[in-house]
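Lab notes, practical 5.
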Amino acid sequence: MSFTRRIGTTAAITAVLAAAGLTGTAHAEELTPDSSTITVDAYDPSEVILLNAPLSSGWDYVGASTFRYRDTNLGEWFTGYVYSTGGNFLACVSSRTSYHKYSLWERDDTGSRRISTVTSKGGCLTFKGLDAYVDGANNKAEFMLSTNDPQGGYSVTYYD
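Output from the prediction step:
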């Protein structure tokens, strides 16, 4: 899967900043898969301070986790999973000093599959178009994040 990269000002993040009592605009890097309906918006943590902004901008908190499970075969750290109703899903990763890959995974009893990957220094990653991953008796998707950062151990907060 390849991505088209666009850099620009994002009105939604500017609104989030305003809701948090901050002024200015945010620059967002939007990574759009060329051959899929999944879209990922990656916001640079050096340009966006979120405080409680996701809660004030229509996002519902669904959980938090850390990169604490190591898969040595893949060379990645995984978080625990959280439930989502599909649509859009927000993962806010602690800021990092260098770029790493972050992958959204859908977990099922029969196995897990990688949905999308983005390279970022952390910050908030918005995954869009996830309705197809809602399944099971609870009519929810189970999402988790992985990273190739060899350090692991830092936190992720999830919103639906």
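Observations recorded by the TA: The longest strand covers residues 111-120. Residues 1-36, 45-52 have pLDDT under 50 and may be disordered.
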